[in-house]
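Study this fold:
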Amino acid sequence: MADDDARPRHDDDARDRADDRADAHAHDRAHHRGDHPRVPYDRVAVERALRAGGATGRVVVVGRTASTSADLVAALGSEPVAWPDRSVLVADHQAAGRGRRGRTWTTPAHTAVTVSVVLRPGPDVPVDRWGWLPLVAGLAVVGALDEAAGVRSVLKWPNDVLVDAAPGDDALPGWGRRRKVAGLLGDVVPLPGGPAAVVGIGVNVDQVRDELPVPSASSLRLAGARAGVGREAVLTAVLDHLWRLETRWRAVHGDARAAGLDVECAAACATLGARVRVDLPAGREVVGVARSLGPDGSLEVVDGVGALHRVLAGDVHHMRSAD
């Protein structure tokens, strides 16, 4: 069965026709601004490139969906055998991407990389070590943005990638002089043959300032990416880095320290060494200095009286020293 026939169900034809009409309007607006037009992926070329680059499972590119991660989670529940290890679902336009705590990640059509992957580390990697996967994926994004776009970036624990704000932009509470250019989301899906992980990655590539949803966001374009860098180059670089890093992690049974990934993630993580406020579930919070990453990928925060808190989940706000 062809991938187009077996992919997660969407009304692709109708939506793609709508996207084509939107593309025409976007092309006109871009022409009047003097910008390059935004075009859809060449699906066949993208699928071929991702398979050649290490996606050993199923590779599907769809025109439009609400959320690639939600689609993969649902597809794994209904057809787990159809989505083996290192399967990839790419959306040309993601209309309602999922973030942490139910937040959405929205982008104009054809301006961002939106992709989710299936990882099946198997029984040799304990599930309690899977908390490293979003950090490993974030490290992959950091490496890919430098390689493909010439943009330096850093991690913000647990699942954001930040770039420097544009000259003249003000510091923002919780963000300082940095802005979010990419986000990550991890899901663990229980399956009869053993769990699978779905890792979603979204990278803002071509948005201009008035297309960003919040002041704390940015794009590679605004961050000074090399001229001519397109979404395909960013997508292939991100997945290339992800496969290489995840292979190292898996080879040592998910032991990030043995793989050297704890050191690399720490070196790329702007949260470490910063004074932070962590909003925890049930309305609790921890304020202190982010000291280190724990063996399970948790954030270790030392509060004002010297007590150590290991944070597995929470919203982290970077604070100024005077806050």
About this structure: The first helix runs from residue 3 to 6. The radius of gyration is 19 Å. Confidence is low (pLDDT under 50) at residues 9-34.
